[in-house]
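Q: Sequence in, structure out?
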Amino acid sequence: MKSTSGRWPTLALLCAGLLVSLVALPAAGQYDPDMIRRLAEIRDKQNQSNTQEQGGAAKPAGIDLDNLPALPKEYRQGLEKARQMLAGNDPHQTREAFTALSEVRQRLLPARYPEIDIPLGRLALDENRPNIAELYIAPYATDRAVYRPRLFDAYILAGDVALARNDSNTALSIFDWLVKQEEKQAHDDNATSGERIAIAAEGAARAFASIPDLDQAEYAYKFALDYANAKLADYKKEYAWLFKRLRDGLARVRRANAIRKYGEDFVLFRDAETLRREKHDPKQAREIYQKIIQKYDAPGRGEAKPPLPPGSEGEGRGESASNILNPYADAARLYAALCLIDQYCPGSGRVFGVGESGSL
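A: Exactly. Output:
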């Protein structure tokens, strides 16, 4: 069974019969207060159970995470239909899924089923309600003394909840622990192992980025992508969503890291040069050159500048520090003009000394 962790929106499990019977659909944020209260009571009891067990005291009645009951068959019949409904990111179908799952959750309390609770928790977090999300996944992810592969999605969601609360260190500890635990597992196929470790490493990358430690974030994203490439080489089509997410995340972190190291003006100029020279898109390149000029060109350009006071650095140059040209803004003026020519007269840039590679 391949994990669906980390997909947004989450692929929820729900009963097909309930979907047919729904007429009036409340907004996804309308949570039943009584159900939330009961979930909180179950969470608190389990937290107390974990604390007393670690202290050596007798374990009170709680949820046995090693013997969680299987979801009744009648509530599993709508699985494929739910996946098809939610794959299109349709808000109406997401509300419908939430309503159906909430009704099932209410009917089955106090019994806990991760197949229901984890998707509900993901939907709550998608609405920026981490406290509600935490109630749904508790107590699955609070006890990490023993790794339970069935609860992988709950652990991922717990890390995401910590990130939503700006608790980067807790999130990082969860994702790092997950990578180490999954490396010890002997899965029947490479796909399960590849997907899970890549998703956990991606979580660690997001945690590093939120600290921010962009060097480590870049390393973690690259690790996740390399691992996915190694383990999911035969499943590229099936896991296209994961590869795209990892590549996009790595690109964002690399860009942010480059801005931190070299400045935004350098990165913008690099972007414009890529568009002009490699992608041959003078219109888009010119827009970025113009942005560089507007943002980084020296104030008062072209105006007479008073000489600097005697004894000051640069005396006699006739310009103050605030009027010194930004080299990228200065170069952007030339290349923006060339792009304008090339936009309306393709290939004319070469007449003005621009070679095949686009360099002067």
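Residues 178 and 200 are 6 Å apart (CA to CA).
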